[in-house]
Structure formats: C-alpha cells, structure tokens
Amino acid sequence: MSLTDLIYAGSNAVAGLTEGAVNDAIEKYGESHAVGYPDTAYFLPIIYAATGVKIKTLGDLPAAVGILKSLITNKDDLGEALNAGLATAVGAEIIEAIRYLDGDPYAEDAGIGFVSDPIIRSLGVPLVTGDIPGIAVLLGESADPKTLAAIVKDYQEKGLLTFMVGNIIEQASEAGVKMGLDYRVIPLGHEVTSVIHVVSVAIRTALIFGAVEPGKLADFLAYTKERVPAFVNTFGPIDEVVVAVGAGAIALGFPVIADVEVPEVPGALMTQADHSKTVETSLESRDIKIKVTKIDVPVSVAAAFEGERVRKDTMFAEFGGNKTPAWELVTTGDLAELEDHKITVIGPDIDDAMFEDGKTVRLPLGILVEVAGKEMQKDFETVLERRIHYFMNYIDGAMHVGQRNTVWIRLTKEAYEKGFRLKHIGEVLYAKMRADFDNVVDKCQVTIYTKKEDVEEIYEERVKPIYVQRDDRMSALTDESVEEFYTCLLCQSFAPSHVCIITPERLGLCGAVSWLDAKATKQLDPSGPNQPVVKGQAIDERLGIWASVNEAVATNSQGAVEKVTLYSILEDPMTSCGCFECICGIMPEANGVVIVNREFSDVSPVGMTFGELASMTGGGVQTPGFMGHGRQLIGSKKFMSAEGGLERIVWMPKELKDDVAERLNKAVKEMTGIENFADMVCDETIAIESEAVLEFLESKGHPALAMDPIM
Ligand code: SF4
Ligand code: NI
Ligand code: NI
C-alpha cells in the first residue's frame, strides 16, 4: 500500500469507530447529556480550534463527525491525506471524550489521559526559557526495552518533556525510568487514541499563549509548526491507525521518526532503525540544540529532576527544615584572592556523621558560595543565590526547599549508595554558576560547613548582616527610586504580541523574573530578552502611564498593543502571555477582586475556575477587569493601586492567602493602618457562594465595601 492509502485506511477506520461510539453514547445517555474534558476552558479543544464550534453535549457530536468525514477525501495527494490525519485526530478526541462520560477512564491506567489547562500554563516558562528544549512523543511497543529506556533517559537528561503512549510505558517503567510530571516523563495511556492528549496540549498552547482565533485552522497549524518544538518516535511495527495518527502529527508540523521501514517524506516522516541514533535524528529534525554542562558527580544532574520530592522512606540525610540550623549565601569575593573551583567541606560528611536514630543523618549545613568577576555587581548576588534552589533540585536524589536560613535539603539513599557526598553539592553549584553566569562569574569557590558551632557562628557574624543589608536595599527599591524599567520578551516565542514590563514593585506575571533578575539578565545577555526602558516623565502617575513604556510595548508587540498602564486593571491593563501564577477578576457585588492561583481547581466566587478566568486573557490580549500576575504582586503597594489597591482583594484560595499573608498584611498596614488584613479576605474554607462571601466581608468590616464603586 502507498503512504496515502495507509493514511486513508487508518483514518476511515477511526471515522467508523468514532461514528459508532457517538451513536452508542447518544443511545445510552441521550443527546442533551454533557460531554467534555476536565479542567479546560476550551471544550473539545481540537474541534474548537479547528472549527470554532463549542461542543457541549452529545447532540453536538454528529455534526462534528460529519466535518471529520468530509476531511477524508481519499484522493491520492499527500496534502489531502494529511487532512485525513487531522480528521483522525478529531476522531480520537471524540472517542476519548466519550470515554470520560463514565468517570475518569484513566483512574486505573498508568497513563494520565487528558492534560488540564493549568498544567499547560505551568509549562509556559520552562518552554520559553529553553529549560524544556523540546517535546518528545513516544508511541508503541519496543522490541528492546533496554534501548527504549536509554532513549527516554537521554531525553530526560536533556530536559525534554516526554509523552508516552502504549506498552512502552510499562517497558520503560520496568527498565527503571522515573515517571510523572515531576520527572518530565508523562505516560498518557495505552490506547493509541490517548496520543490525542498531547495533540490537545499543542493546540491549547496556541489558544492559551498565542491567542490564535478558533476556527482558523491554518493559523493553528502554522503556530504549532513554528512554535511547538515537538516530534514523534514510534517503536515497533506500525498499523494504519498509527500511520493516520502520524499524518495528523505531520500536519501539525511534528516530524515522525519510526524504527521500522516507512515510505520516507523528507523532513516529515523518516526511518531511524539504529536506536543509538534515535535521539540525535529526532533533535535534528526539529533543530533542537541542547546545552549540557558536564559535571563530575556520581548521579544525573538535569532540569528534569527538578520536581522530585524526597520522602522519609527514601531519605538518607537531611539538613535544615527547622531540625538543624542551615543557610546558604552567595557573596562577592575578591577576584585576586578567590581560588576558582576550590571546593571545601569543613566538618563531618554524610558517611562519617553520627546516625542519630539508626536511619537518618541530620546535620547542620552552611553553604557559602563566593564568586568574583570584573562584571559582577552586588545586586546580582540574590539572583545567583536564588538559583541555588534550582541547581540543587536538578540533582537526581536531592530535594531543596526554601532559601536563605530557611532552607531544607534532603538526599536519598539511592544517591548516597551511588557515591554522592557533600563535596558533590559544591561541584554542582560550581559548574552551574560558571555555566549559567559566565559573563559575570570569573571565579567561584564553594565552602560547605557542617559543624554546628561553625554554622551558627558564621551565620551570626557574616551571613545575617548581609541578609539584613539586602532587605534594606530591597525595600528601598521602588518604582519611583529607579531610572529604568525592563521589558521581558521571553514569552514572545509562544505569545508573540505579549510584552511584560518589569518594575521593582511589579515582577513578571510568571513570578520568575524580578526587576533585579531582569537587570542581571541584561548584563549577562546584552541583546537578550530584558531591555531597559528609560522611564522619563510619567504621563499619569496614578494609572502608571509612561510614554517610554507605551513605546516599548508597541514596538515589541509589533503594534498589537499600543498602550498599557502599570497600576490599573480597568484601563489598558498589562497584557498576559498565559503562564501567570495568578489571575484576578472583578467581583462587582463585593466591590473588589478575587484572585485565583493556578493550583486551585475549584470554582471561585465569580462563578469561574482558574482555567475559565485565565481564558479571558492571554496571548497579549487586553481584557479590562482581568489581569494575570505573579504571587509576589499580592503585597506590592502598586497592585491595581489606581483602583484602590490591595484593599480591593476580597477572596483568595486559602493556600495562596497563607502564602502571601505576611507581606500583604505589612503592605496594607503601612498604607492604611489596618491590622491583619488577610483575616478580612474570604477563602474557600469560609465561603464560595457570592452571598455568603458578602456576609463574611460585612462581618469583618472589609474596607472594599465602603470604597468607591469599582466599575
Ligand atoms: Fe514571560 Fe513575562 Fe515571565 Fe518574561 S516575565 S518569562 S515575558 S511571563
Ligand atoms: Ni532533585
Ligand atoms: Ni509567559
């Protein structure tokens, strides 16, 4: 059979299955029964994107099946056949949605099935920073599980996000691959139709970050091809259905690399039978370049291990976390005096330490990183110091929580058994500091203290005074006290018309870029994503309008956005890309705003979930009344200050409220004299229904109720 014949055979088979499934479902549940995926604001996302149709009930499906069938022309033309591939995707999306009618079909499966909107949003930053350099989709059953596992581990070490479909899931798992979102290896499911959940991720990337208009299929295909760096690897023999699915991938711009003979289509469909070359061929097919730093330690060090938690039963050693004193500090030393790559451990290491309860080693810990360089500035110390958290978490077998003198570090037995010791922490920090900050760090030395008296004494004499100094400097940093703001254009790779403006009192909406970060990035990468915007005279101080800011936004968004205010959510609010940590929206009856964070999945008092609120904005679109922002902004005196500021906050999920309470209380107290403002803010443990929320606010005398009408 020719390639087009194969594609049509597969797509016709799927069309038939889809039609059958739709008819059966309607018979069983009736036409008015709801159909959809959990935690998304985009209905059946692929159908919504391709046609603009919002599928809500089973009765909406037969028309979609009609469209699907019309896409399968059976004409002997590759372009037409690729459309049949898209039809297969639509069919798979419908079949999978129907599987969700009886509850989560993945509850008993190793796969996770549908990927929710909040997860996709959380992937925005690592994708734009190149922390996740690409997306691998693996499918099938391998004749050789060992090499399969080697391929997956290789992607993992390179930081790629890997999705798996089919029996390769068990094969890789049995061969020791660590799996789960935390490890960037995501099992989707066993049925071939579950591959649709990764297609859905690609399509929603365009909806969420690109603000591509539903119904404009060609725009979606251009977006995924240009901006979503994905590819497909198939393992084992492939049947027509896999070929048809593969054709859908190719239509999206994702090359397919098979390990069996296939009719090759240059740049789109190819064979790589040698598994030792699969990774290389795949990365080349999407022009994905990987920057690796070789570090001399006995365990893997890769961004993919960032999310791993070390639990009690796998833990070998523990530091800090209120059990022992611990701190970390990056400070600038003298260029002439520092010795580059000098790593010293002073005190007991983890193997010669006392076993306190026969199992776990607990030690005090002080990590002193001294750097020096001609371009190094004091202001960059905190930027480097915050990276310790990430660098330590990259270690397979290490968990790092907190910062400064609240750090909490755990190491696993597995890492210990592989030979990991404290000096290796020094090696990792050294290598990453030199690699990531090469423009400012010419020399770096690391000293690790584990004797209680050292850790405590050095803290009092050297470390604490530096923290205090920095805090003073930080609180003096206001929008008024600096000459320049910064742009952040990182997210333009996904959201081409979005520009973040970063000020001392307003960090990037992803929460990852502060004004100091932006300043340091400018130094490290002069033509990079953070460029200074010299403020000049404000046009309107209350709303936060500057001609310089408007100009920077207009230029960098290619004219898509011409005006933004920095302090208002009603008048030309700052745009969003889509990866914001929180979104706030107006609750008119409470005369204030609710804020919902990405982790909260229930409905908020405005009747919308985070995902639904989030879908109101994004992709550089301005939607007055809705604004994406970072957690840190809750506690900034500039938070919608044009509309009355922090006092307008009437509701937040409890976890978020607890997280920001200290800073929020402090800022509100300084501005209004109100004590413990966070206690006046409602949360889901108190009330979600509008009336009950209002009752609570009244009982607390919440200030928003007495303010000018918000709209
Ligand atoms: Fe994206 Fe803005 Fe964060 Fe930069 S600051 S990475 S543009 S969200
Ligand atoms: Ni880790
Ligand atoms: Ni973003």
TrEMBL record:
InterPro entries: ACS_CODH_B_C (IPR045822), CO_DH/Ac-CoA_synth_bsu (IPR004461), CO_DH/Ac-CoA_synth_bsu_3_sf (IPR038571), CODH_A_N (IPR041350), Prismane-like_a/b-sand (IPR016099), Prismane-like_sf (IPR011254). Gene3D superfamilies: 3.40.50.2030, Bifunctional carbon monoxide dehydrogenase/acetyl-coa synthase(codh/acs), Chain M, domain 3 (3.30.1650.10), Bifunctional carbon monoxide dehydrogenase/acetyl-coa synthase(codh/acs), Chain M, domain 5 (3.40.1470.10), Carbon monoxide dehydrogenase alpha subunit. Chain D, domain 4 (3.40.970.20), Carbon monoxide dehydrogenase alpha subunit. Chain M, domain 1 (1.10.8.190). Its EC number is 2.3.1.169. It holds the Pfam family ACS_CODH_B_C. It comes from the Bacteria. Keywords: 4Fe-4S, Iron, Iron-sulfur, Metal-binding, Nickel, Transferase. Residues 19-101 form the Carbon monoxide dehydrogenase subunit alpha ,N-terminal domain. Residues 467-711 form the CO dehydrogenase/acetyl-CoA synthase complex beta subunit C-terminal domain. The keyword 4Fe-4S applies. The keyword ATP-binding does not apply. It is an enzyme of class 2 (transferase). NCBIfam families: cdhC, CODH_ACS_al_bet, PRK04456.1, PRK09529.1. This is CO-methylating acetyl-CoA synthase. It comes from Acetobacterium tundrae. The gene is cdhC.
